[in-house]
Specification:
The chain is an alpha/beta fold. Helix content is about 40%, strand content about 15%. The protein folds into two domains: about 240 residues, Type I PLP-dependent aspartate aminotransferase-like (Major domain) (Aspartate Aminotransferase, domain 2); about 140 residues, Aspartate Aminotransferase, domain 1, CATH 3.90.1150. The chain is built from 13 helices and twelve strands. The strands form two sheets. A seven-stranded mixed beta sheet has the order 1-7-6-5-4-2-3, sandwiched between helices. The protein has a five-stranded mixed beta sheet with strand order 8-9-12-11-10, covered by helices on one side. β4, α6 and β5 form a beta-alpha-beta unit. α2 packs parallel to α9, α3 crosses α8 and α12 crosses α13. Pfam families: Cys_Met_Meta_PP (PF01053).
Amino acid sequence: MVGEGTRAVGAGVPEGEAYAAPVPGPTFAAHFHLPGDPAVAPYAYGRQGNPTWTALEAAVAELEAPGEADAAAVVFPSGMAATTAVLFSLLRPGDVAVLPSDGYQLLPRARERLEGFGVVVRTAPTGADAQLAAIDEGVRLVWVETPSNPGLDVCDIRRLAEAAHARGALLVVDNTLATPLGQRPLALGADLSVASGTKALNGHGDVLLGYVAARDPALAAAVRAWRTETGAIIGPMEAWLAHRGIATLQLRVERQGATALAVARALRARPEVSGVRYPGLPEDPGHEVAARQMRHFGCVVSFTLPDRGYAERFLAALRLVSDATSFGGVRSTAERRARWGGDEVPEGFVRLSVGIEDAEDLVADLHAALDAAGDVSSGAARAT
């Protein structure tokens, strides 16, 4: 089997043809010529399929489940479109689902919608013991994020998959933070791997994208049918840009992970910084489990500053890091996460996404911003 970088470069790319472009351009078409029986047509109408989607889906399937012929992926116009497609296509009134209580902040909104349709929803914090306790014979679907967003807690995918399957439930893993090069949930026993491709998969901050990957063709077909029936389709240009970005995924993942570890270590040495979380740190509470199931630990580091004002001064003083709400891109971003009001985090909690800048420059920028934030607070204290 080829290496990660080789696989990323060639994922979903067709065999070369004389005088043809190495990567086909996007196909813009609302409909396709359709003689004869539509049931055998590879493409008929733009809401049902598009060759540019097909290439991207082949690439994602190759990354999430390399070498598995039955693996399939379905792409969506955003991570939440992929998330809701799974939840609403596979759950019925009366079904029981377990969702993380500390996951992505729009999950509670999805929970409200599910409950409105008669689905019973339980929540549990990320971590095997709490999530295992929520799984019983009546559960239909278990949803986990590992590492979780934004707290970076980790759960044991294999252990949860075994528990869910023993009770007839499906396990779905949000793999956004890890990426398919950092972690392969399907190989660890998960039934579905879901991600916001907006983040590291595309990596350039210019495309909204989501996907669902499965080894069971029936599960993929159910999610694909939901996409067709609801019209939650991605544009061909966005699909093409995302596919282009995958070629550099391994380079970005490796560099960002190495820099994130350096950043986490630097932050741990600062007295004003507390609660540094990064699964790649040997001291991190989730490191032991993460080291068993992850090959790369991601680009996100979280930490807490003394209070809201301190965090805001820190963010304003950064020069290489933008104050933005996404993560996974080539440019570093950070934000005070509590400003959204949906996460149970301290007011000074910061989620930092490490880009591909030189590690030394990024660490220096963080130190300078921390110094500036501290100087301002010291000056204010002396003035009073």
